[in-house]
Amino acid sequence: MRQDKRNAAALVLLLILVILIFSFSQALMQKREEISIVLPQGGDLAVIGGDTAAFMTALEGTKAGAQVFLFPNGAKLLVDTHLLISEGLAAVSTPLQKELGIDFSLEEFREMMELAGKEAADRLLLEAFIEEAESLYALSMNYIDYLDYSDYGEMFFDTIPDPKGEPYLHLPSSLEAGVRFRELLIEKVNNEGVIIRPEKVNAIVFFRDEGDNGALRGVQMLLLENEEGEISPFYVRGVVLADGGYSGDALRWHGNPKWNNQINLRPEQIGKGLQMAFSLKADFLRTDFLYRKIFLIQPHTGQYKEFLSAGGQGVYFFNIEGQVLEVGADIEEIADFIMRSPEGGAFVLVPEELAEELDLDNKGVFRSFNNLDDLARILELKEIPVFRGLYYRLTYHTAPVSTGICFTPGGLAVTPLGEVKDVHGEIIPGLFAAGEIVGGLHGEGMLPGMALSETLFFSRRVGMSAAEHVRR
Predict the structure, then answer these.
(1) What is the distance between the alpha carbons of residues 454 and 16, in angstroms, rounded to a whole number?
(2) Does domain 291-406 have CATH number 3.90.700.10?
(3) Angle at 237 between CA 231 and CA 240, to 5 degrees
(4) Phi, psi of 172, rounded to the nearest 5 degrees
(5) With contact defined as beta carbons under 8 Å apart, do 228 and 300 qualify?
(6) CA 291, CA 247: separation in Å to the nearest integer?
(7) Could you tell me the residue ranges of all domains in the chain?
(8) DSSP helix/strand/coil, 120
């Protein structure tokens, strides 16, 4: 009997021991799972942005020996590529120029840039750009090589539309050039091993000296947010901001909150890079130059189409106050008039044949009135406009108009290597910038074709210098 009790007690103890061992092993496995989830992630260099400049910079950084991670930050990939390519390349000493007998010097190029920029460009950036101006054409070919989208081989930028007026400007002859460029750029980025990550970058964390206001000593990590809203660290040694800058929110950075009648042409660009840079006290170069376009608006759907005949004969701009812009105004004057008119209260009056041509595929953009009294009453104008020099018309064709800012040459202050400077002119260690987020090269304005040339110039320099920084 005693033996049976001892056997039963031993069995209970054994069962308890088994349960304890099982529980311990389960806890250990769970702990291992938790540890595996929070294992640190990272790499050498992070490029933030999904535009052409971001892809090119990531590619250059990888080719220079860095492990590069690309964070589009929720942006659609390469939405600016077609526009960049279609507007051409500003370059000198190209085979095409020599073939056409164009003798265009670097000094002439510099003078044209200074004239367009009102001599307000950053001198160091301008000098660096001029030094590499001759290589920009070759660099563009390095990115796209030869295009085989047609039955015959053709150079990429093989047209100079105005050899006398703009002998530096090269355009592609194919409408598919931008599409092919985008395809090749994606292919090269993938082949070179750039890793594209889906998380969004919420913040850049730096090593600092002791104290809340301690000096920045280098990049420590990014704080990433996934689709579930979870935040995790990502350790890097360098960061490049190339997310398109502030083109989608230009008025926020340039000044006048009273400006009305604005279309956001690039809503995907929210200026996240600038916000992060400003939190680090980065310096920002403001300009008064805003490159704007005029758009016809479809009242009911909000659709819009560029109004290329804005300064044409017989075209008048007026607003709800009854004010009329003088005939012969240029695009900048027209844009100012529209932006300073009451919200939704700017209009254009055009001849009948132009209204029929531009009616956005007959979607009712233009309205017709038999006399000015009806026009003023139905549009609820405060005064009947007086169109000086307007010949008698049987009908008056009007449509609402608005403006959109395509780009502006302001942006972050950088060195010729793309290193971001703070408000005291000191370099923020490990922080670089490329693309539209950069300012200072163009001063108050820019020549046609400079957008792509600047992208090539900064992408190569920033990719190489950032890779060198993280290796150190």
Answers:
(1) 73
(2) yes
(3) 80
(4) -80, 145
(5) no
(6) 10
(7) 39-289+408-472, 291-406
(8) coil
Helix (H) or strand (E) holding 299: none
What's the pLDDT score for residue 283? 95
**Polymer length of the chain:** 472
C-alpha 420 chain-centroid distance: 17
- Taking only the tens place, the pLDDT of each residue in 178-227 is 888 899 899 999 999 999 999 999 999 999 988 767 889 999 999 999 99
Tokens 């000098």 map to which residue?
127
CA–chain centroid gap for 94, Å, is 28
Pairwise CA distance, residues 161 & 451, whole Å: 17
- Residue range 39-289+408-472 in CATH 3.50.50.60: yes
The CA-atom distances, in angstroms, between 308 and each of 62, 283, 295, 305 are 42, 36, 8, 9
Q: Could you give the CA distance from residue 109 to residue 296 in angstroms, rounded to a whole number?
A: 36
The closest alpha carbon to 432, from 133, 68, 138, belongs to 68
Ramachandran assignment for 174, one of left (phi > 0), alpha (psi -120 to 50 degrees), beta (any other): beta
- State yes or no: pLDDT of 150 exceeds 50: no
Tell me the pairing of strands 231-235 and 41-42.
parallel
Residue 394: which of 359, 355, 363, 357 has the closest Cα? 355
- 87 closest CA partner among 157, 179, 155, 188: 157
Query: What pTM was computed for the model?
Result: 0.84
- CB-count exposure of residue 169 (10 Å: 0-12, 13-18, 19+): buried
